[in-house]
Design brief:
alpha/beta; 37% helix; 8 helices; binds zinc ion
Amino acid sequence: MRINISNVAKLPTKYGNFKIQSFREGVKEHLVIFKEPLGETPIVRIHSECLTGDTLGSLKCDCGDQLQFALKTIGEKGGMIIYLRQEGRDIGLLNKVNAYALQDAGYNTVEANHQLGFEADERSYEMVEVILNHYKIRKIKLLTNNPKKLQSLKYIEIIERIPIIIEPNQYNKEYLKTKKDEMGHLL
Ligand SMILES: [Zn+2]
């Protein structure tokens, strides 16, 4: 897969002054958001796009809270967010809305994906290594509750896992429980 890489640009935000760079992989345009200094072992958050959570403040999941936690942490301490455009655990927005409709009918998040013919989680993390390699980063402190992300990195050494602590709300309590019980998330 041919990868196009943008120039680096500044992005001031309410969480701090970041720099951004986009990596285009086929039709997917990923975004790296970083705050210097990165140092030898930067804090890294791998975040998969969730339009409803990240930008609409959806309470069905914890993506928006996790992204804000990561922006705040990295805004203070430096590090990098790798924002991967794999919406809805990579089933895409239209399928995600259909999965939500199934959840409205009583299925949990894993069952709904299976009903639509998808795995519980279709995401992949190969781009992460392409991106970290581009920045010559070999060792990271990974900001995550998801052990699959820990296993998926082959050439990058994770020297520490930093958990993301988020208070559940009345809507995402069940979703977080499913993530913990059926997908092995460390919550
Ligand atoms: Zn989400």
